[in-house]
User: Fold these one by one.
Assistant:
Number 1:
Amino acid sequence: MSSEVAIRAEGLSKHYHIYDRPHHRLMQMLFRGHRHFHKTFQALHDVSFEIRRGETVGIIGRNGAGKSTLLQLVCGTLTPSAGVVDVKGRVAALLELGAGFNPEFSGRDNVYLNASILGLSREEIDARFDAIAAFADIGDFIEQPVKTYSSGMYVRLAFAVIAHVDADVLIIDEALAVGDALFTQKCMRFLRRFCENGTLLFVSHDSAAVTSLCERAIWLEHGTVRAIGPARDICKDYNAEIYQQDRAATRVSAAKEGRDVEPASAPKPAAKRIQAIDYAPQRVEDKRWEILKGTPLHNAMTVQAFNPEDSFGTMQMEVLDVWLEGEDGSALSSITGGEIVELVVHYRSNIDIDSVIVGFQLKDRRGQILFGDNTCITTAQNPVSIRAGEEQKGRFRFQMPLLQSGEYSVTVSVAEGTQTDHVQHHWLHDAVILQSLCASVSTGIIGVPMMDIRIDSVAPRAGHP
């Protein structure tokens, strides 16, 4: 990554005048500076950041947070109300669906129009048109007016253009969400190649996509910068905040309807972490997972505090300890892949609960979820209960896949309810850090342990030499 700044925003703001009635616009013009017939809406306020050349930055935030407004200011399609934004190099953007297309023009005409706006000459477009058409893969529709296109065809053509204009800065909004799976994968492959040298500003509600693609993230909230930092950390905090806001909205809605809901409860400042020293848990050979009644183990353990910033929930159930163990019951800190392991989640409840849920996710160093599971399906017909003051252990037994060498983390949670309707009591990020020592993953993020690999000879078919 270069030290050269590709995008710099200083005190960037954008506001709009909102008029209650159409004639107020005319009255505002007549009484300019004397009376106000409008309300001011601040879409963006005092936003400042720097993005260096070669850096990949994601922008996250809820609807109305100002993400699209910020991108349009960076692209130059909107003029800021205050502040400045400076972008170095050729910028290509995929913003609102169909933005920049003339609906009466054919796809071919729009390719020439958009590419010329982005700085390509007629000769350069001629040389690249076949590659653009092949990338879009919309067949004969390239000769039809784009007003006849589906939303997916719009995105295919628009992305194909920006992928072939040799941009220095690429800006992608939520538009990729409407593409089909195959085309989305093609776009993601292109973006990963582009990120090797170019500067990417990427907006998505999919935090997994942000952590997968981006090094840093900017969290916008109500038009202002809530936080800037490593993508993994920002997305983790954002998801926790969204959960708390959604639960608060659910409580308000339930209160209006007269339904009973759990009381609001802020996370406790320091849930206790207990690490096992000489304890081998009971084996479970015949089930994928099982919840076992626990007994206090403090005599055999030492106590260490979890970082409260790495967890959220009501804390009416608390995760006490998490570990991975091998077939002999010993705790594992490293893996090679292919071995049978059990993930154990030890927790305590502070209230009576009739339907316990335990779950986990395994993530790579950038926070991308590789796999996970929970107990919802297994206990759907026979829910597991827990009483106040009791302790249990959720156990997941599986064959560890082959993971590229490096560090991985396990996130765990304990909740109550069902798969679709549940209360999160304790969600704990990065409860366990594992080191993969595997050197046999030939391709992909994870590998599957092969039972056998060979090449068999086949007798020639009749009539063939």
Number 2:
Amino acid sequence: MQEELYLRFSPKMYAVCFRYAANATDAQDLLQEGFIKVYRNLHRFRAEGSFEGWIRRVFVNTSIEHYRKKSIQLSTVSEKEEATIEDSDISALDQMAEKDILAIIQELSPGYKTVFNLYVVEGYSHKEIGDILGISEGTSKSQLARAKSILQKKIAQYLSDTQKSYTR
């Protein structure tokens, strides 16, 4: 049964781990740790939602615990700074391949990447992220805004470089 679970879910769960990890080796470690937790806690699955959703939650939580253990510090923001944060749209994403987008997201610092993934990919609110990571809601908003700003610049540079290579 364990082998079946691993074969069925490891590709998707590796992708989850990789979004939070610093590199492929860390993602592999998170994948292994996550499956150990799944196997040990199968009896806790209550069939109140999808099994895959339950497994995904285990892997997200495993990744967050790993993040916490590394005790990466997020910079806090004042209420004044928080009021200046704008949520801008990244329309250039439509022009890029998924692998290129993931590669650029991987370049973010661990703090920015974690908040970005929790908010954009996993759908957590800033309040939930604050509770999970032990930061204020404003800090979560700030980290997301900064991550988006960095991503915008990196994407613009990527598109510019790509366009230049086509015109040569």
Number 3:
Amino acid sequence: MAQILVRNLEDRLKGRLQRRAKRHGLSMEAEAREILRNALKEEDAPSVGFGTASVALFSGQGIGLQEGEEIREWRGFPLKPISFDE
């Protein structure tokens, strides 16, 4: 396992880390490792757009999309407002 040394850590920051570690029942080192793990976890996740993520989420869930198929746009269709009078 690798080790790192953090120099010039402000006393206030060290105190906050100690209190946080105590709340979680961890040592300061274990708490620092957990903070680093959580902070760097997001970089591993691929960044995709909303449409791509939606298709990936709902593919094969009965909405008629095959893998790799794009959602068609509904251009040229007239929109009718909903009537609440009926």
